[in-house]
Amino acid sequence: MAMANITTMSGFLLMGFSDIRELQILHALLFLAVYLLTLASNLMIIIITTVDQHLQAPMYYFLKHLSLLDVSFISVTVPQSIDNSLMDNGYISQGQCVLQVFFFSFLACSELAILTVMSYDRYAAICFPLHYEVIMDSSKCQWAVRAVWLSGSISGILYTSATFSMTFCKAKIIHHFFCDIPQLLKLSCSNDYLAVIGVAAFMSMLAFICFISIILSYIHIFSTVLRITSAEGRSKAFSTSLPHLFVVSFYLSMSVFEFLKPASDSPTAFDLMISIFYTVIPPSLNPIIYSLRNEAMKEAFRKLLLGGQFTKKKSYLSCC
């Protein structure tokens, strides 16, 4: 495609991972395998946390929404990338790019928000076990989840409005496998990108508040757990808290690195690997972490895979 056509075309050209046809096919097959496994595992979590009577506590209610976010998050970028690799065509229309930016920023913000809520849930469960059902009652859980989705939608609207209010005057080539906001900024004219920088600064401040809230929750959690005299009690508390802490640490570290590093005209293999760790690995890791460390989840998985019957029982969160 001629450079003039690239500059004037309505959509964008995603460069992906490689120009070599064999590597494109390999990339598509690997992404397809990870995508299908992620869909299957997260959908299983959504099913069992909905129908199993033993998984109606707030922790599993939030986990269900985390899995729903993960399914949506990986579906924003990976299917388009698979299609581009198989078709050997990196073109993405302006409308598709707008949707990618909106849903990517929407779901990324929502994921951080739900992880913050989950850290508070673990704090309430471990530090105030006798008052837990009062602190995390049905209405509060519902309002927390509404706030999660609302915060994500606001983030998506702000990022999308600011990004596509810019004028793109350079060749519309994106050195990535999806419409990455830092790459889009490089295509803007003059100071059009300042609105996006302002939105990013505002959202970064909110993300920092979430991060501090998570850190404070875990300081209280670990100080409480270390005072438990029973080894079994400490083990049980750590088994529910450490997986969540790992997910939070991995997600935040990869996302911070991704957004702080400067966008490159010719990204290295390392840059692309970091983007995979940020966009693809967290949704696929969450089901493994929570199912392998949680006996109730493992038992529910066994029932589901072996065709066991779930008997739904009303509980204080069953209406959620």
TrEMBL record:
A molecular function GO annotation: G protein-coupled receptor activity
Source organism, top-level taxon: Eukaryota
Entries under Gene3D superfamilies matching the protein: Rhodopsin 7-helix transmembrane proteins (1.20.1070.10)
InterPro entries (UniProt xref): GPCR_Rhodpsn, GPCR_Rhodpsn_7TM, Olfact_rcpt, Olfactory_GPCR
Keyword Membrane part of the UniProt annotation: yes
Keywords attached to this entry: Cell membrane, G-protein coupled receptor, Membrane, Olfaction, Receptor, Sensory transduction, Transducer, Transmembrane, Transmembrane helix
GO cellular component: plasma membrane
Family: Belongs to the G-protein coupled receptor 1 family.
Name this protein carries in UniProt: Olfactory receptor
Organism, as annotated: Chrysochloris asiatica (Cape golden mole)
